Amino acid sequence: MDPSPGGLGAVSGPARLAGPDEGLSAQELALATRNHGLPLEALRYDVTPPGLHYVLVHYDIPDTAPDTWRLTVGGRVLRPLDLDLPGLRARPAVTRRVTLECAGNGRALLGPRPVSQPWLVEAVGTAEWTGVPLAALLAEAGPAEDAVEAVFTGADHGVERGVEQDYRRSLPLATAADPAREVLVAYAMNGAPLPPQHGSPLRLVVPGWYGMAHVKWLREVTLTATPYTGFQQTAAYRLRQEPGDEGEPVTLIAPRALMAPPGFPDFMSRARVVRPGPVPLTGRAWSGHGPVVRVEVSEDGGAAWTDAELVRDPAHPWAWAAWRTTWTATPGLRHLAVRATDATGRVQPLAPPWNRGGFANNLVQRVEVLCAPAPTAPPRPPAA
Ligand SMILES: Nc1nc2c(c(=O)[nH]1)N[C@H]1C(S)=C(S)[C@@H](COP(=O)(O)O)O[C@H]1N2
Ligand SMILES: [Mo]
């Protein structure tokens, strides 16, 4: 066993913290290349086009065969179910547009940095998910009187901080069976069968909740009479200041607004360049706690704010809203920022909320923009 921090011999607990001057490691780079984010210019689409939605996979994408796939619903139920895909597809289906965000989004901006998937701000995407309401399946199975939680098991298997496991998460039964929460057992994404990386052939979709709850490659739903205490529920995804803290569980998505970076980028630094004058600023905003009610932008890093126009589509309450405004750029280096406020009064912070796992860091996004007058024309080839 490898006794190094984060190796197989490590005890479970929060991720290791990077040292004060510790750069990103090859291990973090390897995770970052497997688990890709949304290119921020793709914020222009209401529904994220195939392949541009962020991806997070803890272990390997499992080798799943849709033709022989079974989903069981068992444990503390009166009538256990054993379903195949045609059986699921034969049931009444619903389609919901849902914005999904990884709980670790923003982690790499923290200091000290928890060593894990190093997201900046791009671990988000919006898809149209089609499937069977979980509430309907649970009603069919009939929860026993003592059932309190539903535990969801994926087909992927791995080791995490010394604990070998199938990927497994639970929801309170009251959430899982709540028709208003609209939890889905989804078999299609944007009208096509789920792609391998997004959970083919079945996944859970839990509108409003951070990504870890949306169990992919779903093969088993088990109702339990006691709360589930497995790794992904009690070791991971808790808001801890100290390793020994019990910590609050990570649940609903905190409000966040993102800007489609304006102008054009510098290849290496990704710093933006715009011309003086009116510059359209657009983006998206969302919250799992309730609708976003306000989006503000700043050109000085968050000292002064002005309201942007917010465009919400009431047909899609679980999806991000669009926002837009026009900024009058003047020459110089500017620090654009954007922040969202939701209906519960939650507003994005100017200082990152820190915890040992690096979860739910909804710090306001800052975008460095150089406003430069038009470049002089490049030299032309000499006339022949
Ligand atoms: N079975 C399984 N489900 C999973 C995961 C996983 O590793 N295995 N990752 C979770 C996490 S942490 C996130 S953020 C979302 C990512 O979903 P996506 O890749 O479809 O965007 O899936 C969740 N469901
Ligand atoms: Mo995640």
TrEMBL record:
Cofactor: Mo-molybdopterin
Gene3D superfamilies: 2.60.40.650, Oxidoreductase, molybdopterin-binding domain
Pfam family name, one: Oxidored_molyb
InterPro entries: Ig_E-set, MoCF_OxRdtse_dimer, Mopterin_OxRdtase_euk, OxRdtase_Mopterin-bd_dom, OxRdtase_Mopterin-bd_sf
Record-annotated Oxidoreductase molybdopterin-binding domain positions: 58-231
Protein's UniProt name: Sulfite oxidase
Limits of the Moybdenum cofactor oxidoreductase dimerisation domain: 277-369
Residue ranges of coiled coil: none
Keywords for this protein: Metal-binding, Molybdenum, Oxidoreductase
